[in-house]
Fold these 4 entries.
Entry 1:
Amino acid sequence: MTGCTDDSTGYFGTAGRYVLKLGEDMFGTGKQGIVGGDLPTEPQGNEEGLIFYNYDVKEVDKAPKDEKTAYNLDGPENSGIVVPAAPAVTLQPAQPGSAVESGTKIVLTSGHCLTGNADYEFVEDQLYFKAAANFIYWITGSTPGDSGKVKLKQSRFYKSDTVMGDLCKKAGQEIKSGDGEDEIYKKIAVTLARYGFVKNNKLVEESNGVYLKASVGSFLSGTINKDRRIKFYKKYSKKLDGFVQVMNEARKENTKLWSGWGNKYCYRDSSSKVDTSVVPSNRNTWAGGDAGIFFKAKATAGGSASVGGTSIPEYELNYLITTSLAKKLAKEGYTVIKSKQSKNTQQLQNGTEYSNKNISLFAAEKQAVLHIVVHCDSAGNSKGGHLIVPSKDVSGVAEDSKKAAEAFKDKAGSGVLRSRNKINVTDGYTTTNFAEVPTILMECFNMDSNDECNKFLEAKDGKVTLKEKAFWGSDRFNAVLAAIEAVDK
């Protein structure tokens, strides 16, 4: 078996070299391993699992004689090994190295990924409601009345080459030239229900038309409060995620769903402006003013830093820092879970794709005390880092995130953080908007500053490495510990 090195003796005693160490503190040492990543002490597997110390171990004959009986040598691969007659030795746990409570989990994410991901995802959970309200208004040409009913108007989508026709086709409900009005309405109802825009596919026929019940209810009856938007997210988000997947496909194919709706209403980037001409004039009551900004790219590759004529992409630099921090926190007794297992991976440890939304969901899945997302900044001539925390307390973690950031700031020494705006409280980042555990985005230093790059980085054999002593010093790492302690209840 592999994964245990000589330095494992500090965790498990001499016998610890011959067992496989994973993330759990099976021996009560107070020491936690690092789960995920490619550190020297990391095991082959990436799952947190139990350790069976009398598992068949082929090379157990290399262990001291008085330890051999602690292992089961019955396996065929161990034939020829003589079992000593001495009684089994009980493995004594080493003394804990800190007062950290066993099982305290910290999730570390290195920001950005190798190629990025240009597909779109929602910027925040409350926007699911706003996007659904926007789409149901636009696609039907009517706003839900007090009962939440929307009237279907055949003239808007009876052809297959319309936005609705494109969406129906994606849902397996293709509108064909020979379809009658009733058949078209049925296909539209099934499609809109599948993607969460209406409550169900039940058509309501009245004297003046055919109606469906909008999932958003009557969104023009007044300002839609946060609780209602969050309730909608919990109920319909999976269906609307399916719609976003279809829209991303339409974007690549440049079909009507994208060119007719998505390209106009769902995003903004450096080369495009949002068209809100079809949005109802009193949209401020339901869409927060700018109805068009619903999505951002799932991930980008980030910037780059350079030292001694050698450059390093930010995603790789962030991974170097994350790996270094993981080692230091593990030595303090924390269970450290790296969401990315290697610098070039496009997936998280749980198999989901790397995205700014998914890293927050991953941290919540692992029940982290604190989620630290490592970034480096590109900020002109400024020096020093800064912290980013959520402003919207959607999941009840904004206050604790700010508390952790304040603790970091108070402990950080001169030069760790920039002189002004040390903490940025914002709703502009997908990661913090979807945070379900206390979360800090840690912009470590300015990659545009030659002084900072020379201070913290060095080039060796064509590769950029981190000057760990200069980078962490005594202040930056202590600031990280202070942030954790501030929320470790």
Entry 2:
Amino acid sequence: MRLLKPSISIVSTAPARRKNGKPGRKTKFTPELSRRILRLISKGIPVSHATRACGITFQSFRNFQQAYPDFEDKCRNALSAGIRRRVEIVEKCCRSQDEGLRLRAAQWWLTHIPGAAEYFSETRKIELSGELDGRVAVLVWPHHAPKDITNESNDSITRAP
């Protein structure tokens, strides 16, 4: 049987230091990473997917934006460029000779562009209230109140604002 010699290891309680003397871990943020993220975002890739493709978390991305204001500005510009590219594609489809393509592009426009999406989106939210006097209230959002609403509490007609 072989006896092992006891070994002593010294663990430092001081924070880790980089070569430049600053505490903590070296940042992953590099000019190359910045270019890769900005390139993907400007192509219209959602930020969460662009960060994942570049090997960082969304939280790290947000931390980089806070630490580097210039990077945050470039991200906003890239996001605008990506949106512009996608809208140009939809607009081109709206001018197509193919009627089916034009209709589909128009439908996409109405359901995704702010200002129109609230009225034409296919997304619905349904809320159910608890039972009250044997009745259940069902609300479907988005909804548009008609000009005349019946107030069931006193059966009178009131005008919606």
Entry 3:
Amino acid sequence: MKPPIIVVYEPGDVNIFQSIEDAERYLESPDVDQLIAYDSEGRFLDLKVPESKGLSFLGIGVIPVTKVTISSAESQPAHIEDLQEILHGLLQHLEVSMEWLEKATLDDLLVKSIEQIGFTR
């Protein structure tokens, strides 16, 4: 796994974390099923939540918020094009020039995305 870590909630809703630890600290367990994560090389990442018992307060179920752990789901980056498409869409939404976007590599897209939205902390 090579940081930065890119986490996608839905198209256009992207967070970029400087480290795995930053991402694990920020992410919340109830959201994990809605997230897709990649490392900077296009490796798909596995987001896991440790098993925990559901809590109840006055008979109302409460969803516990527990730590999320991140690990690599693949040894070789197999989702480079997916990550490029996500970052391309983000930058297009932020009105980065189409001419620049058409020529950009994955590294270019990642650097520009960090310049535009910064790291999530």
Entry 4:
Amino acid sequence: MAFFLNRQQNNESASNLFAFAFIRKDGSVGAIGHPFYGGSLSPSEIQSTPERIVANNLAFAALNRDGSVRAWGSRDAGGDFSYMPSPSNPKVTKIFSTTNAFAAIRADGSVIAWGRDLSGGQLDKTREKNPEDIQKKIGTNVKIIAASDNAFTVLRRDGSMISWPTDSFGGNARKVSGSFVALASNRYAFAGITESGGVKVWGSRDFGGELSSAAEKSLSGGVKRIVATGSAFAALKGNLITHKTPQP
């Protein structure tokens, strides 16, 4: 089985588990692969000029220069979504993805999401697995979004964090406190750098979502950057410190 970290993408092209999508030199979008998962696209489906394509496991989303969004591929994974800016709907500036959902930051710092509920594709309180109205809690002034396999975490400009939808994939940032300046994620966990340079983690302990007492002491301050593999984190603070809770 392949997971979302196996996807390949840059601004001009992206791939999911079954298809490729790309921006041609003339600005049009092309796709090849399984038609149900985004490998088939008619020219009329992307009418604006795209500047970036983002993939999840089963669908694609194109962010256009006018701030609109057009997605295609599996409907369950968010492939039936379109968004057009208006006076009441700010332009989309960035798009992020889990395995089967997308989340986007708009120009006012607010967030929208679409795709599979349990992958973070719903923000409203009517969803059984996501009882809180996350969108109201997020508000505006979001700085960045990080994604695990099936959870999103937003870092707001005031240093606070909010995550959704499920604890098992790291959707439990409420369990950590502090003011944060940076975020990183792997498949099942998240790590954040606090204003004081310390590190806090959450999510699956087998993927670095818990710190040992020794690691907690080593990462209590002076951390400049965190990077992630699929199952571990590394912190840069003069010397490189790696962290992953050992498998039993």
